[in-house]
Amino acid sequence: MQKETIYVVGHRNPDTDSICSAMAYAHLRRRQGLSNVQAARAGGINHQTEFVLEELAFPVPPLLIDVHPRVRHVIGEHVITVPGDAPLSRAMELFHLHNVRMLPVIDEARRPLGLLFLKGVAERFVVPSQEMEIRRVLACPDSIRQCLRGVFLNNVDEKETEEFHLYVGAMASETFRAKMEGLDPRHMVLITGDRENVQREAVEAGVRVLIVTGNLPVSPEIVACGRQKDVTIISTPYDTATSTWLTRLATPVHCLVEGKSFGAAGLDERLDDLRLKLLHTKDPGVVVLDAEGRVEGVATKSNLLRTSPVKLILVDHNELSQAVAGADKVEILEVVDHHRLGNFHTDTPIRFINQPLGSTCTVVATLYRQGGVVPEPAVAGLMLAGLLSDTVMLKSPTTTEVDREIALWLGELSGLDPLDFGRRIFAAGSALSAYPSVRQLILTDFKEYAAGETSFGIGQVEVVSFHEFLTMKEEISSILRTLREERGLGMAGLLVTDIVQETSLLLALGGKEFAYLIEYPRVEENLYELKGVLSRKKQLVPHLLKIFKG
Fold first, then answer.
1. Cα angle vertex 415, ends 412, 418, to 5°?
2. What is the pTM assigned to this prediction?
């Protein structure tokens, strides 16, 4: 299994507060001794955040597309395999040594030839039902030699796999001679000890393989006769009983899996998909392959019980609908937030910190203070940036006295003037035309909410003038209409906030009744004036939740 990794991550379409609080909180938890913790992001960053990270010389956190548990997360690091040309005896050793029930059979490139199951082997070789089945051996002379740890005294076509019949020459010459009548010696493997007469009669008859047990001597004359009659002769240190048992286990394992279908899963397949495969197969497991089709492990139903090594700490949100995909499938250790409580629940108690402050960065900064940890100047700058961004330079109605006091503290630690830094932050993110597309402009900070059976989505951008927005209004309206249809929203809108005039315009596309419910002055079709509204969270969303719930 992979080592545990704890990601501190904000919501999808992250804003500056989301990114900066994740980075600052990951830094705090590392300072407090939590290992393998790192900041991540659940979406692309906006121009404002790009400016902040570049200004403070921080790299952009890695993108976490999803955290769905994968097959690679629950399989062992070392897989036991058996080469296709190995005898069954070697597979039986591996079953015993490693206490496993299935073995991938591989070729020279580690690609799978099939799966060998202990139960199937036992049914075939341990409890055969007929005498001829007991005698039947599918093998080549060389695999027999390997099983018996023997040496060739004479070898003929030692790599040729054939179906043999196994006999033991533990009888008098007359009895053996009578036994041989009616049998095809070229399909016979005969095991005997130092019965020279039986050895001689066997090679004269031309048996396919003669096995002499106990490292007992074989006369040069018999070996010479074997060469003349194309008889493979093997000398083994084992006694007759052991040799008989091991010869039955000489079948190359590839012969036992050829033509049989087997289940397979990729390393990066989701555990949910693996669960379906295991539920719909009669086999106890599947082979796990890498991108090149090489064997990397096996997966059984017991693997499904293992927990993912990926853990999460959520910041700046507490709703799974806003979290990175797959967050509901992994363990969430902590939540640090300043929003309303959503539909979040866990199976076990967790650390949940939610404060009615202007930004998550303010919450994180208070945790530094409570923990007696003084942040480095650059980390203090991160938290100051997130605080100024989310409180619109302390002008938003969400701003508290704690935010103002923390802003001064962070300004002192970072050496940055909050007013000057805030102006530069918003100037960097105010040009609407700088976004790659209008769709990206809307979705960069777009959040969806549910009010009863109605859902709606609101994006937000900050500008220093409405002029550029008004020239793009029609194109923005078109994209909002498309988004509303794609996502099945009752309303889709973009809140454009002028931080200089401290007011906003809302471009919103909803049902016919929306214009009568919104209760804000309509400037023109689908455009509403929201004087004094700076906060989507505290001012606009509560109002929309109220009117949609009716």
1. 75
2. 0.70
d(CA 354, CA 267): 37
- To the nearest 10 degrees (0 to 180), the angle between helices 401-414 and 360-370 is 70
Tell me the pLDDT tens digit for each residue of 436-457.
899 999 998 899 998 888 899 9
CA 90 to chain centre: 33
Instruction: Identify any residues that bridge with 508 across adjacent strands, giving them in sequence order.
Output: 493
Q: What are φ and ψ of residue 235, in 5° steps?
A: -105, 130
**Residue positions counted in the chain:** 550
- Alpha-carbon distance 375 to 388, whole Å? 17
CA 219 → CA 192, 196, 212, 534, distances in Å? 14, 8, 11, 103
Tokens found for residue 421? 């830094």
List pLDDT tens digits, range 124-180: 666 555 556 677 888 899 999 999 999 999 999 998 888 888 888 877 667 777 777
E strands within 328-435?
Answer: 331-337, 351-354
State how far Cα 103 lies from the chain centre. Answer: 23
Q: Which residue has the tokens 């033509």?
A: 259
How, if at all, do strands 454-463 and 491-498 pair?
A: parallel
345: tokens are 């629940």
Give Rg (Cα) of the chain: 37
SS3 state at 498 = strand
Strand partners of residue 295: 289
Q: Yes or no: say if 189 and 211 are a contact pair by the CB < 8 Å rule.
A: yes
Q: From CA 381, how far away is CA 24, in angstroms rounded?
A: 10
Beta pairing class for 503-509 and 527-531: antiparallel
Residue 324 has pLDDT above 60, yes or no: yes
* Number of other CB atoms surrounding residue 164 within 10 Å: 24
Q: What six digits make up the tokens of 493?
A: 């809108």
Q: What domains lie within the chain, and their CATH numbers? A: 5-69+309-429 (3.90.1640.10), 82-256 (3.40.1390.20), 432-549 (3.10.310.20)
In DSSP terms, which residues pair with 492 in a beta bridge? 457, 509
Report the distance separating Cα 456 and Cα 271, nearest Å.
32
Paired strand residues for 266: 289
Q: Which bin fits 532, alpha (ψ -120 to 50), beta or left (φ > 0)?
A: left
- Amino acid 169 reads G
Tokens read off for 434:
């700088």
Q: What are phi and psi of 164, to 5 degrees?
A: -110, 165
